[in-house]
Design brief:
Elements lengths: L5 E7 L29 E6 L4 E4 L5 H8 L6 E3 L5 H4 L6 H6 L5 E5 L1 H10 L16 E5 L4 E3 L2 E10 L2 E8 L2 E4 L18 E5 L12 H11 L3 E5 L7 H7 L4 E3 L5 E3 L1
Parallel strand pairs: 3-4, 4-5, 5-6, 10-11, 11-12, 12-13
Antiparallel strand pairs: 1-2, 1-14, 2-3, 7-8, 8-9, 9-10
The structure holds zinc ion (ZN) (3 copies).
One zinc ion binds next to helix 2.
């Protein structure tokens, strides 16, 4: 078992539409169980020395930051450039101000950084918008990265036809948005304490693991504990948890883990 290096807060555990979905009257979307209310998927890592790292900037980032007290972001790790993972990037303006105007380094693969440059082109224009622009610095991830003395290992995973990035820190791994693990990535996931993995619903999906697929990965990797994330409205929290094997649970917004 690994010693604690910090903690992770689930800022969001939902699929791209969020739960409840707009205009849906299903039991999960109408549930009064707070754990059935899922904002878009993101986690927040806080290391023991105070360094804080955000994984993805969802369209719900502002709400998530207010709800869970995110007041400092030293770096952002992007998994990929789908809208549910990047569209809150403009909200980092507040962290820029709180952190003395310093730009925040955003890590990702080439495709993600190219897309961020295009989608948020206004942030890279050399015009003077005063405090109106997010100050970010894009940094291509070519391999493991060191932040606050912690090694962060990018873990390529299949998300439909393309490879995106999961991340591992010590005994903790976060694999959102995936439906396959490439041969070369299995060794990067050896000896895990805690695995977080995509499991969008029970029915098969073209770009996400369903619950059965995620359980297959969990069985092979055999972490001490595992949490499912990127969850749609098909999975009621309490009832689904009762059906999952020991050591496996659905994540929920606000869940905090020591890592
Ligand atoms: Zn629904
Ligand atoms: Zn995606
Ligand atoms: Zn997604």
């Amino acid at each position: 078992m690994s010693t604690s290096a910090g903690r992770v807060t689930f800022l969001g555990s939902g699929t791209s539409h969020g739960v409840p979905m707009i205009g849906c009257r299903c039991p999960v979307c109408q549930s009064t169980d707070e754990r059935d209310h899922r904002t878009r998927p993101s986690i927040y890592l806080q290391f023991d020395d105070g360094t804080s790292v955000l994984v993805d900037t969802t369209p719900d980032l502002r709400t998530q930051a207010l709800r869970y007290g995110v007041e400092r972001v030293d770096a952002i790790l992007f998994t990929h450039c789908h809208a549910d993972h990047v569209m809150g990037l403009d909200d980092v303006r507040r962290f820029n101000v709180l952190q003395g105007g310093r730009p925040i380094t955003c890590y990702g693969d080439d495709q993600t950084l190219d897309n961020l440059r295009r989608i948020f082109s206004y942030a890279f224009e050399a015009t003077d918008h005063g405090g109106g622009l997010p100050r970010i610095q894009l940094q291509r991830l070519a391999g493991p990265l060191s932040i606050a003395g912690q090694t962060i290992v990018p873990v390529p995973v299949w998300h439909g036809p393309r490879l995106i990035l999961g991340y591992r820190v010590g005994g903790f791994a976060y694999l959102t948005d995936c439906n396959g693990i490439p041969d070369d990535s299995w060794p990067l996931l050896d000896q895990l304490d805690t695995l977080v993995i995509d499991a969008v619903r029970h029915r098969p999906h073209g770009t996400h693991f369903n619950v059965a697929g995620a359980l297959g990965v969990i069985e092979r990797l055999a972490p001490r504990r595992a949490y499912l994330t990127h969850i749609c409205h098909d999975l009621p929290h309490a009832a689904t948890n009762r059906q999952l094997p020991a050591g496996v649970e659905l994540a929920y917004d606000g869940l905090v883990l020591e890592i």
